[in-house]
Amino acid sequence: MTVLRTSLRNFFAHKGRMALSAVAVLLSVAFVCGTLVFTDTMNTTFDKLFAVTAADVTVSPKAAKADGTPGRGIPDSMPASALTRVRATTGVKSVQGGVSSVSVTVVDRDNRAMGSSTGAPTIAGNWTGNELKSMEITSGHAPHGPAEVMVDADTAHKHHLALGDELRTIAQTGDLTARISGIATFKVTNPGAAIVWFDTPTAQRELLGNTGRFTQLDVTAAAGVSDARLKRDVTRALTGSGSYKIQTAKENADENRKSVGQFMNVIRYAMLGFAGVAFLVGIFLIINTFSMLVAQRTREIGLMRAIGSSRRQVNRSVLVEALLLGVIGSALGVGAGVGIAVGLMKLMSSLGMELSTRDLTVKATTPVAGVLLGVVVTVLAAYLPARRAGKVSPMAALRDAGTPADGRAGKVRAVIGLVLTGAGTAALFAAAGAKKASEGSAVLGLGVVLTLIGFVAVGPLLAGGVVRVISAVLLRVFGPVGRMAERNALRNPRRTGATGAALMIGLALVACLSVVGSSMVASATDELDRSVGADFIVQGAQQPIVPQAVQAVQHTPGLAHVTRYKVVDATLTSPDGKADTSGVRATDATYVDDVRRTTTAGSLRAAYGDDAMSVGSDYARKHGVHVGDTVSVAFAGGRTAKLRVAAVTSDDTSLDKGVRYIGMGTLQKYVPKDRIPPDMMVLAKAGNGRAKQAYTALKASLRKYPQYQVRDQTDYKKELKDQVGQLLNMVYGLLALAIVVAVLGVVNTLALSVVERTREIGLLRAIGLSRRQLRRMIRLESVVIALFGALLGLGLGMGWGATAQRLLALEGLKVLEIPWPTIIGVFIGSAFVGLFAALIPAFRAGRMNVLAAIATE
């Protein structure tokens, strides 16, 4: 009880300092809990949707992919005879034939696409009784005939659609214009998909290109028949009539959940990674707080030891304070985390992915994990200061001699730091010299960890030299005040090192990602300049290009030629008997002029001859393939061909690395017309001196197809830069949490340092130092500490980024570019961070009563 009372008294005696540390714990725990609640809520939303929409048994073509598009833009389907067989099966109450496609674009009369901006699909299908499980018609009526279409209420609300409005659906089989006959509302949350429904004959004709076919059958069991039994009976009924995938409701929901879960896991682990960085930064704040509190209570600890307190009791007293800090900060963090999750849900809803707070999911494990993590991290961070407090001898403490063995511990720490930094640097050099990116990435990770820990450990040693250099450049102009700020920063190198290290971690990641991002953009730009001869590139957002859009491009005036580019599913068997399922690319022969591929053997133009192909140099080396050899190519949906290797293309590139090319004639020879995949990209070359006119004409030709973008090389480079920039900005936003925690660390360090130097400040004021000069001294000290951390962080991050670029060079991204404007901007911004962090400590120091400060023990 005595230990608890002492801990409580000390805790509340320094509640301001503890509050700053608690905020660091709160922010870190809030980010963890917010991430868990947000992703759990998204999983709940999808689980409800899958559970409601899944039939007792679902039948679909076995070849169908998860997204419904086997690379040709038209979903795989089954004949209506399968529905007849299933309907006659014992145990079947009813069966509905479904038609669904995600390879569609829906536009309004103003040619604006109705799709979601969050990546959720646009789905077109037929309206059946199965839809009533998850939907209800709240306005109008179901579609009848090709002139009518029904739309979901969320899409209608977002795009201000009403009954009678005209919508155009663009599919591989053609365009269909219809008027809205009804609006259907979800009974569960729609995660953001835009959905339109037609009647069944229209959906079959317009989405599948053939009536009397379905993409799936939704089977309902009769009373008393289990899903497992129904599946067995349906399987038996369909045996011998084709190849089908037959799933129970649970199996279907589990498959859908798995595909969504992969995406959700990426989000979860990425966000938890940033939360881990914030926790790491928070550890330095907590260590600093307790180290300084212990140092300030040296005499008090000596008195406690003198009257009989054991080392264990002193140690326990400090750890109990840390426990209180962890519990309070973590408890508040759990509540804040729920708030963060709700905020993220609102943000996603504004972007088009609907997430209802009715589905808010806070699992019991979430608050437990948050509190446990916060408490454990806080107590572990306070362990070293607590242990140091327990070592204080009564006589040394009463003489205010400080803690023992500081010098020796500092030397050991410096040696360990230098060893780790040296080992980490060696690992980075080894990674830079790796022959394969996959092998070098693990060595790079090791180098990053070792150099980070090494810099943290050697920070106090570096503080002396680096702070002096920064002070010589920046503080000398401030005269005596600047020199006093420098001495204050150097007074306790361990404290300065720990405070700077907190800022160093976040800025190192910022610098590393900036270097990698800039190098990627510069490399891709260089590759475009060297390798792409086409003037224009037409692409969709991961959607194939419909034939009518390709025809529009081909009929555009001012173009010298148009090159189609198809991704073809195929299995290649090399002369050594090894199979490869990564397929081939079929293009027009003009691709040779549009993309300048380097060949190591043969001629790429010859690969467009009859029964010819090219292979990549890595494939050729791995399988011993040479020009003139024959490779067996089994085309999906077509025949197997024996193709002669006419060229080996260099894989020392990032553009189409490893791609095998064939001509359109070869594709048409071995694959039936109705199984030939659509174009994934179209390249075009303008006639001599007509690039500007052709660009304008091409955009006009594709105005009816807003899902496709027309870009010249300048547009392509700009978009690439913008995409990388958006990704980096999102990462910087997440890293801002670590920066905020680091700023709190600087504030806490300065605040405790001001308290520690109360008497000294009083004496300085007594001999003539003004309030303004005092505040300036503290601000300058803060700026020096911030710049110290920034210098270490930016230097370390640029080293990581340069090494990562060497690995990317193995994948063809060969240009190293240091984004100096960003680096310099961050460094200057760090000075302002230091100024901001010093505002409150400097203000409090300036308000001190001079006589009271001098009288302080």
Automatic annotation (TrEMBL):
The chain crosses the membrane at residues 269-295, 318-344, 364-386, 414-434, 446-479, 500-522, 730-755, 780-800, 820-840. It is found in: Cell membrane. Pfam families: FtsX, MacB_PCD. Keywords: Cell membrane, Membrane, Transmembrane, Transmembrane helix. Coiled coil: none annotated. It comes from the Bacteria. Residues 274-394, 734-849 form the ABC3 transporter permease C-terminal domain. Its main location: membrane. Residues 19-236, 499-687 form the MacB-like periplasmic core domain. It is a multi-pass membrane protein. InterPro entries: ABC3_permease_C, MacB_PCD, Macrolide_Exporter_MacB. Belongs to the ABC-4 integral membrane protein family. PANTHER family: ABC TRANSPORTER PERMEASE YTRF, MEMBRANE COMPONENT OF TRANSPORTER-RELATED. This is FtsX-like permease family protein.
